[in-house]
Amino acid sequence: MLGIIRIYLLHYFQSWLHIRMKPRTLQLPVTSKCNSRCVTCNIWKYKEKSDIDPIALKTVLSNPFFSRVKSVGLNGGEPFLHPEFVEVVKAVLSLKRIKHITVISNCICQEKTLKTLAEIYPLCKQKNVKLHMQISIDGVHAIHNKVRGVKISFDRSLKVIQTLKKNPGVYVDNFDLGYTISKYNVDYMVQTKEYFQNLKIPIYFHLAVPNKRIHNFNNAPFSVLTEKHATQMAKEFFYSMPIHEKKIIQKIRYTLIYLYLAGKTSKRMFICDYLYSDITINEIFDTFLCATASDKVGNLLEKIPTYKEYNSLVEPTSKHCDTCIHYANVPSLLGLYTFFIYKIKTFKHIQRYNIFS
Ligand code: SF4
Prior knowledge:
Layout: H1 2-17, E1 25-29, H2 54-61, E2 71-75, H3 85-93, E3 100-105, H4 110-126, E4 130-136, H5 142-148, H6 153-166, E5 174-181, H7 189-198, E6 203-207, H8 228-244, H9 248-261, E7 279-281, E8 286-288, E9 296-299, H10 307-311, H11 314-318, H12 333-352
Parallel strand pairs: 1-2, 1-7, 2-3, 3-4, 4-5, 5-6
Antiparallel strand pairs: 7-8, 8-9
Helix pairs in contact: 2-3, 3-4, 4-6, 8-9
């Protein structure tokens, strides 16, 4: 509870007073190489490929600017294609206050993924850092393979999922699945949810959004909002999810995503700390506020920007926040208020039409 209050206090302190704080969370796309051919991402189409340099990363992260970082997300491209991924993790573990590392992977390079996890997990444990893995799953069997553009994709990912499930505490502290909803897989969410529910593996659903980092910001034909049928399917899914969810936070989250899809919100309903605190660092050390709508704000090999410099760069990104549904995790105060008003209104509706009599 105290942790949640702290998240809200810090968020509103920095965003209301427009005060930049040292980052608590870093997003690190460590490589632009990828072995998927996803319909929602253009990163794999670019010929120029780079891997982050772990030695330079360690030097950069030793700057006092990063002294409060607690959580780091390692992604790509496909992070396990980085030839020195273990060294990258060691560089991240050199952060003084690091507590959580999350790796997002497609797990297509199944053996290398497991071998690397077996190497990095003890290093994390030694430093008392929790290692979390999120495996990208966009459907079951052929649907997943079609969205990912790789025929062997589902079988490979499933093998890693089964291995992690069978061996708790050997490769990671915990893991879950992330389903990116596009108009290509919106019809298969219930099927996928049931498939993994039977295996007792948690799966989280988030909408595919236009994203500068993966080069689709100005052209997002995959979005469910581009087709009536897809929007309706997504709405129905998120409308029904709170009924089955046990956790109140997930009930609120899914309801707010439903209201967003139904066009009943004109402001962002979730907290996002990428404007005034957290940052994204790509594989060549270019920095961005968020990975979604931010342009490059600097390069850490050239200079660590001052707070003032960062603050002058907030405005071009902030104008996208109200329509952005990325990082739809923690409801804002406005989100909580909207949820409770919605619940009261729908409760009155149930009473008025005597639905349960
Ligand atoms: S555009 Fe989205 S991800 Fe970026 S800072 Fe705004 S809310 Fe956060």
